[in-house]
Amino acid sequence: MSADPTARITAVDTHDIRFPTSRELDGSDAMNPDPDYSAAYLVLRTCEGGHEGHGFTFTIGRGNDVQVAAIEALRGHVVGRSVAELCADPGALYRDLIGDSQLRWLGPEKGVMHMAIGAVVNAVWDLAAKREGKPLWQLLADAEPEWLVSQVDFRYIADAITPQAALELLRRGKEGAAERAAELLRSGYPAYTTSPGWLGYSDEKLIRLAKQAVADGFTQIKLKVGADLADDVRRCRTARQAVGPDIRMAIDANQRWNVAEAIEWTRALAEFDPYWVEEPTSPDDVLGHATIRRAVAPVKVATGEHVQNRVVFKQLLQAGAIDVLQLDSARVAGVNENLAILLLAATYGVPVCPHAGGVGLCELVQHLSMFDYVALSGTTEDRVIEYVDHLHQHFVDPVRVQDGHYRTPTLPGFSAQMHQDTIDTFTYPTGGFWAADLAGADPAGRDLAGTEPTA
């Protein structure tokens, strides 16, 4: 479809979309026992026929309305902008959004407003990729290194990586990129699964799903831990017996512990050969992570899904606090800030294994890892993308996982677009499912919600 050089953004539509995942304890962990996977979702409307940008940020239920309100507060920065100029330079909007001083005061560059900026920025990238007729990973991989550097905000991180150093990394990433892209299309990108390991699951369900994961080709699974040590010992023993000695098994405490407690607890589980311990303490505690890492080696330390911006990631890397960097596609300010984080990880030689546990996060983050492989790090060694088999059927271009690998998306865009029927059904509180549920009727929506994992 031809692009209209005069087209403008005409509207920003927002939706509070929630799924009742808490009813099956999908997503349950030691810190978040009853999450309802939710998306503060937006659509950028244009007067360019057929072109729209879709984006969202992830929450776990109550407060999703607050997140939607934050997105709506950014509408004035977006409506009326030239579509062509916006897509040619998403970084200009990114800088405008993080630079709104009155809204910035609510962060700065962290929390609800920052996540709202990420949702809007990601929608712009979705629109830009659709207009180019490319999946986002390919749009980024094909881009000139100089342009990519122009999209990155180096303020506060220039002591760790300069624009010139980033340019050199991206120029090196171009070497062999075409061959890696072809390999990506052939083989996909390695995945691991968290589907067996939710804390609320019975041992029988854990065993069934862990064995199924191995049969499906996954070489790593993850278990939630942190509520009760004796229970964790039993569950880790059960899982290790189910998958055997050769499958990597990560554990995830979801920020539950103090530093000393994290060390003691991880050592108590070391007999089950955990590959990494994830979010062992507060995501803001850089030095605490460094202390834990020194104490629990050879168990690796991983964190990132709640790291609020590129500045904290910089400090985690500078302090030698993590072995695995877990960026999130919707926690920071979108693709632009995640480019900065990928460049930081490449500078320090730390593998990126993204978080993808929530609704739509698998769909988004695959593009970032695939770009990193093709045009930045050039490797998938010790790199895996999290996979959770929840709610993918609600997306127009859902993830496809085969033989333990993400299959490479080929449709134009950022894979962020939801079906209109999903929006109509799961918008809170007026959508068909919630209206019936809140009225006390049986909404008969469990199959639509897709809350029963199969992997």
From TrEMBL:
UniProt keyword terms in alphabetical order: Lyase, Magnesium, Metal-binding
Q: Which enzyme class? A: lyase
The UniProt entry, under Gene3D superfamilies, shows:
Enolase-like C-terminal domain, Enolase-like, N-terminal domain
Which reaction is the catalytic activity of this chain? L-fuconate = 2-dehydro-3-deoxy-L-fuconate + H2O
Q: Which cofactor does it need?
A: Mg(2+)
Q: Which InterPro entries match?
A: Enolase-like_C_sf, Enolase-like_N, Enolase_C-like, L-fuconate_dehydratase, Mandelate_racemase_C, Mandelate_racemase_N_dom, RHMD-like
Pfam family example for this protein?
MR_MLE_C
- Under which name does UniProt file this protein? L-fuconate dehydratase
Mandelate racemase/muconate lactonizing enzyme C-terminal domain location is 203-299
